[in-house]
Amino acid sequence: MALDTSNKREFKVVGTRVQRPDGIDKVTGKAMYGADVTAPGMLIGRILRSPHAHARIVSLDTSAAEALKGVKAVVTTADLSTPEDDYFADIRDNCLAREKVLYDGHAVAAVAATNKHVAKEALKLIKVEYEILSHVTDVDEAMKADAPIVQEGRADESVHEGWSQNVTSHFEFGHGDLEAGFAKADKIVERTFKTAATHQGYIEPHACLASLGTDGRGELWCCTQGQFLVRTKCAEILGIEASQLRVTASEIGGGFGGKTTVFIEPVALALSRKAGRPVKLVMSREEVFRASGPTVSSSIDVKIGMTKDGRITAGQAKLRYQGGAFPNGTVEFGSQAAFAAYDLEAVQTLGWNVMTNRPKEISYRAPGAPMAIYAVESVVDELCQELSLDPLETRLKNAARKGTLSSYGPTFNDIGLVATLEAAKTHPHYSAPLGKNQGRGLSCGFWFNFGGNTCVSLNLNSDGTVGVVEGNPDIGGSRASISMMAAEELGIPYEKVRTVITDTNSLGYNDVTDGSRVTFAVGLATIEAARAAIKIMCSRVAKIWGIDEEAVVWEDGCAKPSGPNAGEFPPMTIAEIAAIADNTGGPIAGHHEVNADGAGVSFGVHIVDTEVDPETGATKILRYTVFQDAGKAVHPDYVEGQMQGGAVQGIGWALNEEYIYGEDGRLQNPGFLDYRIPVASDLPPIDTVILEIPNPGHPYGVRGVGETSIVPPLAAISNAVSRATGVRMTELPMSPPKLLKAMSER
After folding, report:
1. Of 583, 586, 561, which is closest to residue 572 (Cα–Cα)?
2. How many domains does the chain have?
3. Cross-strand bridge partners of residue 297
4. Do 547 and 489 belong together in one domain?
5. How is residue 661 annotated by DSSP?
6. PANTHER family of this UniProt entry (predicted)?
7. What is the Cα–Cα distance from 630 to 675, expressed in whole angstroms?
8. Is residue 45 within 8 Å of residue 281, measured between CB atoms?
9. Taking the C-alpha atoms of 626, 632, 634 and 638 in order, what is their torsion angle to the nearest 10 degrees?
10. Range 669-699 burial, b when 16+ CB lie within 10 A, else e
11. Where are the alpha helices (DSSP H) in 96-223?
C-alpha cells in the first residue's frame, strides 16, 4: 500500500501529542500484568534448574516430590510432545532439558503445588544425578576444533569443514573487488572487537497462568509480545490443536524483543493438564537472568581502507556470534547491517553463528546490528583520527542514499541517512566546546524494519464511536498510534476511537510485536479497514439519497455529495449514519488482512559527549543527541521515547552491562545489584531530533522507529571515550577497571 502522493491533505490527528489511552490504568495500578491474573483453585508452579553449565542427566527421580502433601503435579520433558521440526524441538528442549543440561539454569523439572512454600520444598526432593561434561562459554573458544561440543550434528550445509561442530551456520554478503579496493587506500586499519552478552532488562519477569484439560482445550494468560506466536509454539510442544488453545496477552512490563518466545508457558500448561487445575508460574529475577534469552556476545574483525580525503575504498568484517546452547540466526542480521550506512564499491561481510553453554539467545532491539556497527564505526572513527578528518563530513562523503547498492544486496529507495547527518552537522551540539578529559563521538545506525502478517477489524458503534480490534501487544504506544490513524482516516476526533488488543480466538493471525513492525503494518491495515468502512457508509448514504455510490465522497467525518451534479443534500456525519445503520443494512465494519511489505529501512545518527575520570576510569555521559528518520511521526512523544529508550539501553551496553561467567560456567551476576543497568542519575537529558522522510511503502509515510535507536550508542560512546582518553577500546563494556587499565598501559 503506497504513500498517498495524490492526497496532500494536512494531518489533523496524526502528528499531535494526544493522551495515551493506557496511562491512567498504569499509574494507578489498575492495569493487569502477567503476574496479576488469578483463577479459582489456582496452583503455584516452580521450576528446578541445573547448577551445571553442561552435564548429562543420568537419572531423574521425582517420586519423593510427587508424594509430598500439597503437590498436585510434577512434569519433566517426558510430559511434552516430540515435534518433528527442529525449531520447535529446540524450544521444547530449552523449556525442559531432555538428555543433557546445556547451561547454568537450564530447566530440568517443574512442580505445581497448593502454595509456593510447598512447591519450593518439592523441588528439593527431586533427585537428579548428573555426569558433568566439559563446557565452553566464549565464542572464539567454541569455534576451535577441539572445543567441547554443545550439541552434535547441528551445523547446516553452509558450514565448511574444519570448524568445530559448535558452528551451526555461515553467511556472506558483499560486492566488488576487495583487493583492488584496499590497494587504493592511503590508510588501512584492522581491529578485533568483542562485546558481551546483555539482557533486555525488562522490569516485569516472565509470568503466566495456564489452564489445560486432558481434552486438549485450554486457556493461557501471559506477558508476551505475541499471543499468536505463543499459541503456535505451545500447541506444537504440547501436541494439541492450536485452535483449542486461547491465548490472551496481558499488559507487558517491558519486552524489547525478550518476550518473543516461550520459556515457561508450555511448562505451566503441562502442569495444569496433569493436575487438572490452573497453574500460575512466575520467574524470579535470578531465573530471568540465568534462563531467559539475552542477546548474543560477539567477536568481530574489521578491516577498512580510506584515502587521505576520506573516501572509503573497501571494507571487510568477520562476525562471530554466540547464541547460547541452540542454533540461532542473529549473525545474518549483523552481517547485513555492518556496512549498510555506506556507499561502497568493495565490501564483504562474513558471519558465523556459534553454540556455547549459555542460555538460548533471543532478540534484543535490532538483534545483531549494534555490535556489528560498533566495530565498523569504531574503525571509521579511528581512520578519521589518523587522517585528521572530520568524522561527520567523512560519513557524509560515504553515506548511502537513494540508488545506492547496499552492502547486503538491495538497492536503496528513499532513505534518510544524509538528512540525519546534515541535521547533526548543523545542530549546536556538534560544535559545542569541550573541556578537559572530555570527548565527542558519533555513529550512524541502521535497521531493516519488518511488516508481516497483520489482521485488523474496525467496528462502528451506534453512537458514532469506533472500536479497533488488533492482535499485537502494545509495547511502544501502538494503541494510541493506531487510534490516531483510524481517527485521521475517518475524520473524527481521537477520543472517539478505542483500540483493544484481542486474544487468539477473536481475530486472524498476527505476527509478533517485533521488528519495529506494528505502527507500520497494523497502521496500514487500520487505514485500509477504515477505508472499507467508509466505502460501506458512502454506499448506505447513496441509497438514502437515491444517487450512485460514486456520487458520494467522504470528507471531515461526513458523507457528502461529490458535487453540484450529485444533488443538494446536507452532509451526514458518522454519528448520524451509525444511528440508523440497523435500518440501512445492519452493522457497519471494516476489516483488512495483509502480509505487509514495504516497511523500508531506518537510519539514525547519535552524538554523545563523555568525560572520563583519569583516576578511576569512570565514564560520565555529559550530553546526548539522537537524530532519526521516522518517516512520519504519528505520535511524536512516543517516537521521542523510543529514541531516548534505545539510547539509554545502548549507554548501559557500552559502559556497564555484561553477563559474567566463572570458570565453572555459572553466571556470576544474575541480579540487578551485580548486573548494572543505567539509572536516572547516570544519564543527562537526551535530546531528540525527529526527521520525516516519508516511507513510500506506507500511505502516511510511516517507518519503524523502535530499534534503530539502540544501534549507534555503542560506537558513539566508544568513539567519544577514545577522543577523551587517547585510548581506543576494543571490548565492551568499557567498565572503569578495563578503561583504567588501558589508560595506565598507554
Report:
1. 561
2. 3
3. 322
4. yes
5. B
6. ALDEHYDE OXIDASE 1-RELATED, XANTHINE DEHYDROGENASE
7. 32
8. yes
9. -10
10. ebeeeebbbbeeebbeebbbbbbbbbbebbb
11. 116-125, 139-142, 178-183
Q: Is residue 145 part of a domain?
A: no
C-alpha span between 489 and 481 (Å, rounded): 12
435-449 b/e with 16+ CB inside 10 Å = b? eeebbbbbbbbbbbb
C-alpha cell at 358: 549459555
Q: Which three cell numbers stand for residue 130?
A: 548428573
Question: Which domain CATH number covers 730?
Answer: 3.30.365.10
How many Cα neighbours within 13 Å face the side chain of 338?
33
* Tens-digit pLDDT profile for residues 632-661: 999 999 999 999 999 999 999 999 999 999
pLDDT, tens digit, 9 for 90 and up, residues 683-692: 999 999 999 9
**Same domain for 424 and 489?**
no
Q: Which of 258, 291, 324 is the last residue of a domain?
A: 291
Same-domain pairing of 475 and 575: yes
The answer to whether 610 touches 619, Cβ cutoff 8 Å, is yes
Residue 112 in any domain: the answer is yes
For residues 526, 528, 531 and 535, what is the CA-based torsion angle, rounded to 10 degrees? -130
Q: Are 450 and 599 in contact (CB under 8 A)?
A: yes
pLDDT beyond 90 at 746: no
Tell me: do 736 and 627 sit in the same domain: yes
Domain boundary among 272, 291, 310: 291
Are 714 and 570 within one domain? no
Spatial neighbors of 23 by CB under 8 A, at least 6 apart, are none
- Pick the closest to residue 372 from 453, 313, 315, 312 (CA basis): 315
**Domain check: are 562 and 614 in the same one?**
no
What DSSP string describes 470-538?
Answer: E-S--SSSHHHHHHHHHHHHHTS-GGGEEEEE--TTSS-----S-TT-HHHHHHHHHHHHHHHHHHHHH
Local structure of 254: helix, strand or coil: coil
- pLDDT tens string 600-625: 999 999 999 999 999 999 999 999 99
Longest dimension (CA), the chain: 87
pLDDT in tens, 536-595: 999 999 999 999 999 999 999 999 999 998 999 999 999 999 999 999 999 999 999 999
Quote the cell numbers at residue 537: 457508509
Query: For residues 489 and 557, what is the distance between their CA atoms, to the nearest angstrom?
Result: 9
What contacts 541, CB < 8 A, 6 or more positions away?
552, 559, 572, 577
Q: Can you tell me the distance from the alpha carbon of 92 to that of 267, in angstroms, rounded to the nearest whole number?
A: 9
Parallel, antiparallel or unpaired: strands 552-555 and 558-561: antiparallel
The span from the CA of 121 to the CA of 116, in Å, is 9
- The region that residue 338 occupies, defined by phi over 0 for left and psi between -120 and 50 for alpha, beta otherwise, is alpha
Same domain, 672 and 582: no
Would 361 be classed as within a structural domain?
Answer: no
Per the structure, the complete domain to which residue 75 belongs is given by: 34-134+204-291
CA atoms within 13 A of residue 26's CA, in its CB half-sphere: 12
Q: Are residues 521 and 647 in the same domain?
A: no
